[in-house]
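Design a sequence for this backbone.
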């Protein structure tokens, strides 16, 4: 063996130094150069250098096509981080669903959005079908792997154990400016806190509305962590529709 040959060779060079180096592994004096050489050879001979394969870039998407809105939310891994693309076209702003989040000039309104654990039945849902406990697997609170512990977290039990609930005096704060300086302040799924609300612009005829923009998140999660979850859209805290997030296969 290479290791045995190396030991014989180094023993011939060093004599008793090898014995001294092995007597007390916790001794404070620095080990002899011979002992260091043996350790290096042993590691290179017995323990091969591990190589970690580079994780391929992936894409996740929630497709909107529910009769009320069409479009998609796409999460794509890039060299610069997670690219989040928003393309939404709302069919009729006068349906009554958007009055509570309509701005006074009626030229725009804000949709809040978040990634939740679970999926709506059939991949999409509206109104009560987007509430916690619905769907398969059941829709739960906001995806919160890092335990930022917002009021709607899916990790309620863990947050209680950490004393990070409102009843225990914990104050969850997340907004785009804070997220820039401290990404752990925000739940992974709190898209509204991380990026701000989706601002829907009402088109000239006053019937439809649209949004089309993208964000590059330098600190965002890998896209594959969002597979089999769902994006829930709300108007003034009322859930209006939800869409499952699926892997985009190329």
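Sequence:
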């Amino acid at each position: 063996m290479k290791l045995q040959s190396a030991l014989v060779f180094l023993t011939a060079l060093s004599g008793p130094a090898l014995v001294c180096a092995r007597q007390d592994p916790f001794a404070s004096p620095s080990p002899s150069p011979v002992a260091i050489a043996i350790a290096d050879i042993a590691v290179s001979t017995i323990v091969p250098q591990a190589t970690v394969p580079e994780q391929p870039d992936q894409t996740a998407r929630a497709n909107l096509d529910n009769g009320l809105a069409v479009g998609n939310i796409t999460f794509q891994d890039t060299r610069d981080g997670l690219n989040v693309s928003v393309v939404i076209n709302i069919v009729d702003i006068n349906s009554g669903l958007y009055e509570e989040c309509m701005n006074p000039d009626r030229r725009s309104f804000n949709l809040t959005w978040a990634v939740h654990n679970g999926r709506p039945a059939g991949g999409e849902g509206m109104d009560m079908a987007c509430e916690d406990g619905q769907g398969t697997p059941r829709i739960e609170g906001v995806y919160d792997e890092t335990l930022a512990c917002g009021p709607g977290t899916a990790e309620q039990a863990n947050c209680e154990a950490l004393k990070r609930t409102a009843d225990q005096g914990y104050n969850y704060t997340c907004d785009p400016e804070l997220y820039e300086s401290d990404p752990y302040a925000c739940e992974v799924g709190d898209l509204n806190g991380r990026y701000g609300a989706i601002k829907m612009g009402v088109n000239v005829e006053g019937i439809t509305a649209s949004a089309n923009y993208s964000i590059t998140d330098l600190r965002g999660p890998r896209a594959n962590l969002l597979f089999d979850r769902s994006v829930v859209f709300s108007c003034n805290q009322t859930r209006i529709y939800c869409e499952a997030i699926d892997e985009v296969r190329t």
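Helices lie at 2-14, 17-23, 33-46, 156-161, 176-181, 191-195.
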